[in-house]
Amino acid sequence: MLPRTTEQNEKIKDERREQILFNALKIFARRGLVATKISDIARVSGFSQGLIYHYFNSKVDIYEELVARAIDNSSEMLLNLEQLPLPPLEKITFIAETIVDIIINQEDAAYYFLLITQAAVTENSSDSMAAMADDSFAPFQVMLRIITEGQQQGIISQDSPQDLTIIFWATINGLALNKVIEGNQFPHIDSKIIARIFK
Amino acid sequence: MLPRTTEQNEKIKDERREQILFNALKIFARRGLVATKISDIARVSGFSQGLIYHYFNSKVDIYEELVARAIDNSSEMLLNLEQLPLPPLEKITFIAETIVDIIINQEDAAYYFLLITQAAVTENSSDSMAAMADDSFAPFQVMLRIITEGQQQGIISQDSPQDLTIIFWATINGLALNKVIEGNQFPHIDSKIIARIFK
DNA sequence: GTCTATATCCAGATAGAC
DNA sequence: GTCTATCTGGATATAGAC
Fold it and tell me: Which chain A residues are within 8 Å of B157, Cβ to Cβ?
């Protein structure tokens, strides 16, 4: 048996990192940064507490990497959905449907949403995550643009676009939270209900 | 100057307790039980860390009293609103309006909502608060009843009452969260938008 | 690469002076 | 009733053996 190459070792190390990140996500999303113990992450991941520090420099490092991913993922998803060639109201309905769908079916999605919320509400704003709390958050901006377009076309209700956006994201975040709390008992919400907000 | 009577002392002690609870609420709601430090509560309240223990036995005691109040307050409010002599859809609209209103105008309301969420998601379910996570939570039940009634009368959309209830509370919780994050920048949401969910 | 100490720090809670 | 030590436990992070 030949010794492993450097690349193979790197690959294994990457997989371990991903495994740790995935386990950490679920705990951080529920408990937040401070209340999450390295020993919890280690135990769930199936190895000793000290070993975490072979893969990450600190607890905060893990947390920040996850928050960055949460923001990147959701921003990328919304910016992509925005490009779809659909009329505004249909686009919003499709976005709602897509998000509800991944919250239900993609195991980490609800946790990512919750993590963003946690990060925003905890206001450890020493770092980059303040970018999200304010309205420059890309998913927020995307919805504002679609709503405004729909209002110009007279398709979407003439309420304040900010209000509609806030309510939309409040609903999505609330659903993600519900999914995390309820787990598999969470029902498959009909996204048309959400779309009614805009009519 | 006469010495204070026992009753006067009790009154002062009660006021101090309320002051501590109010300050603690705002921190607990954002950070959760573990990440909140007694020294934070003490500093905001304007006295030494040790003095907290003159008024409460432990940090958990403060937290649990606040969670109990949050559950009691919201349950009482919803059960009262349910009694109003209004047709189902109007009742729901009025409930939405009332809740949005107190979230905006009553300083501690948004924090109480957020605290319930925090308690539910953190799953320290060693205690009484598990009662809320599941569907026996009174405000949840109230909405279910009103929706069911409205559906029998053909006034409310025939979607799953559970789904409608989940979306309604998801929206309310999301709004409370938004209020806490945004503070005074939070806009006065038109509750009619929320009521559209049910049409 | 993984584990078992262990150093260090910090927060909850207590004791005792004023 | 309030404050200033101080005890104690537990969590992060490090060191060093295997």
Answer: 193
